[in-house]
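Morning - zinc ion inputs below, output right after.
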Amino acid sequence: MIANNPKGRIGVTGYPWYFADAFVLDSSNKKMCSFCKDSFADIAARARMGCAECYKVFREEIAPMIKSLHGHLSINSDDQHQFYKIKSSNQYSDIIISSRIRFARNIQGIKFAPKNEQAFDNIMNSLSNNFKFKKIKDFSEKQINELVKKRIISKQLSNNKTSGHLAIVHQNTKLVTSINIGEEDHIRIQSICNGLDLDTAYEQAKKIDTAIKEKCKFAFDSKLGYLTECLTNIGTGMRASVMLHLPELSKNGMMTFFVNQLRDLHIDVRGGDGEESEANNNLYQVSNNISMGRSEKESKYLVFNIATMLADYELSYSR
Ligand SMILES: [Zn+2]
């Protein structure tokens, strides 16, 4: 245990389990990141990395955590498998509410999550010719609530009135693709589609990811992949998720069973209202919880399969 933490925030209780072990290992660690000046105790206290350089400085310390979280220590960018084209389907129109793909990206050479406008000048300058950004603080309260409700921005971004920006790059009645700046990572690219259509969401988000990559240098490591503020997102930085309405499975007590079983497949099933929420109104979000050792397409395909499996069970219980 670290005894003399000036912030008084070090303690095993209340931190993610993968950092809890690190506290014990860390007691004599005096290393400091030369770029962001974080010690490992600083990182552990936030459970967040300080910058891309931290990944090099604290490689040894974080390796066991990455292994525990993802089951792998390197990215798998090769798709070994042939995947069927994932088609959109109306079969589950009452059950599957929406499909979403999100990429987490950070810019090389900027500390993770600075909450000041100046640090974001580089990003905005690089992108403003191609995308039209609006500051979060310039949206009305009503607009913000609507964006959060439609899951176009997170509650966290809605509260970032200093450096939060949003660019809606593509929008029709079925799909919204956006670039969210100043959430947990510098850039979150996300595409959300009505119903079951992970492929369209993926294609749209990927297009924007590629366009931004031509303008900015992302924090990237050849072994670890995209470097993110939280260790849970490194690798592809991609989260595929599907929102389902499962009243019958909830009523029959089946969801507890599925949540536990799917954990072994590194698939999260959570309440639909947000990352930490309990299932509310029988809404559940199915998403991949590892982004290393599995390619983007593998994750997308797995989430698709689990979502359709749950939807099939829901249908069979409704009859
Ligand atoms: Zn650092």
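Note: Residues 1-13 have pLDDT under 50 and may be disordered.

O.
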